[in-house]
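User: Teach me something about this protein's shape.
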Amino acid sequence: MADIQTVRDVMMSNFTKVDGIMKVSDVLNMMRDSKINAILVEPRDANDVYGIMTLKDIARKVIGQRRKLHETHVYEIMSKPVLSVKSDMPIPYAARFLSNFDVSYAMVIENNAVTGMVSLNGMVVRWKD
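Assistant: First, the predicted structure itself:
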């Protein structure tokens, strides 16, 4: 029997974290330059949790509502909290987990630290049957 792929095998380790006070326009430029579709938003303090902002959030919550990219802060449109998965979780379970919550991204945790992000798209594209 073949080894089961894990989240570690398909995660994006080149993820970006930003401060929620940043303007959406600035973060969107970073996302374009890095060719990424989602960013993590840093917790404000020890009692806070990570957030996430995706291109879909920008489309729905800024462009779709005719807000201005340069006037909107990331914290106004991000989703919070972000789902997390352990890096050793098998891909079938991770895909089911994200699907159950109807989200496309999760942050990856290893040794109590964020080590990457994983997406449903990434799981599909890198899946070896």
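Now, about its shape. The chain has one domain: 7-126. The chain is about 35% helix and 20% strand. If you'd like, I can walk through any region in more detail.
User: That's plenty for now, thanks!
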